[in-house]
Amino acid sequence: MMAEQPHEAEDDVFDPAGIAWTSVSPGLAAVRRTILIVQLTVVTIALLVAAVLTGWIWLWVALLVPLVGAGFGWATIGRQVAAWGYAERADDLLIKRGLMFRELVVVPYGRMQFVDVQAGPLERAFDVAQVQLHTASAGTDARIPGLNAVEAARLRDRLASRGQAKLAGL
Question: Can you give the pTM of this predicted structure?
Fold first, then answer.
């Protein structure tokens, strides 16, 4: 009999078999990419002004850094957003995220105290919101970013009712 490879065992821990994951909205990537471009534009303008005013050659070369950062950040954001997912099971909610540092959070419905939805102005412009789960222990709070507004409201209501039902059964 062949031994199981360590990589396969790791995948089972962070991606259990038989789970139908729901992905977050691509709007989350758009929000994060917009923030990235705005930040790198500010850095580029500052470097450009400094290069023009001082005439230092190394500042002109440093203008390549934001370009490289934009390309790397653009690709990384897409992969990070694709790594987010959640799954509703009978007794708990699973939330997974991460590429290099992977995380799987299991939140039992009976431990949820309240669920809220948050969205800033940029998130609302891209029709995304974040569902925040608050549990009996602050250390086990969880969040699901990048849900479209309709899905965020549906999930909030569903989780709140499931949490109430589980608490009533205690």
Answer: 0.81
